[in-house]
Structures are given as C-alpha cells and as structure tokens.
Write a structure and sequence with these properties.
Distance between the termini: 37 Å
Strand content: 5-15%
Largest sheet: 2 strands, antiparallel
Oligomer: single chain
Radius of gyration: 20 Å
Shape: globular
Helix content: 25-40%
Strand order of the largest sheet: 1-2
Amino acid sequence: MDKLSPGLMEVLRPFLGSSWVVYGTNYRKAIFIFISNTGGEQINQVVLEAWRSRRDREDIRLQELEPAVSRAVLDNPHHGFWRSGIMEEHLLDALVPFLPLQRHHVRHCVLNELAQLGLEPQEEAVQAVLDSTTFFPEDEQLFSSTGCKTVASRIAFFL
C-alpha cells in the first residue's frame, strides 16, 4: 500500500462499497487484505514505550496503535489510501498491526527453521544467527529490523 500511487485504490471502491455487486458478481463475502509498512515507526514507538514502562508487548491494545497508524496513513500524500474514498467512507473493517519481533521470537524462528530442515538445534548456530541479526533501537537492541525474514538464509552460514 505504501508503494501504491495515491488514487489507484479507488478502482477497488465499488468492490468494498455498499453495492457489493459489480459486473454481476457478488463480492459480499470477499476478503481484501492490504499490507503496508506505513505506520511501522509509530507501532515501534508504542511498543518501545510499553517495554520501557515494563509492559509486555502482548498487553498492547489495538486501541493504542490504531490512531497513530491511521494518522500515518491518512497524512501521507504518497500512500495509496491518501484522500481515498475507501478511508473517507470507512470501508475498511479491521486494522491488524504487526508488532516488531524481539530476540526470543527470532530464536523461535531459528529453531522452527532448523526443525523444518530436519536438523537438531545447535546452540552455537542459533546464537550465531541471532548475533548476525540486526536489532534496534541502537541502545536497547530489542527488536529485529527484519523480523524472521532472513533467518532461513542465515542458517546455512552457521551450520
């Protein structure tokens, strides 16, 4: 969504709107999933503040994230939803934020990837993958900058 030209999303508006039937096809039960990195910085900030307040990330409520993410989308003239009728008419039902992964989450990804490869977990290899992963913010090193996306490709280097 953040790479989409503003206004292009309007072509989907008839499929999301109240008519539900477009060109003779009923879209009432269709599910559209829009993925975007917009609002990621705001999500990271909320999660970091929660961590600094000694709150678990699992205790963060959607209501804490939704306003910041919505502002990031609506105030960004380069976002696909900027000045979109889809947003103005409130045609989106749900926002599902992806919180940044912490070191223990990435460790689980490494262990799962090793299991999928049929390999026994070797602590040195697991630690090497974790050590090669970039974490942020610089001082705390709490969150993986790539989530678990690079785990599979890194494992081969350390076996």
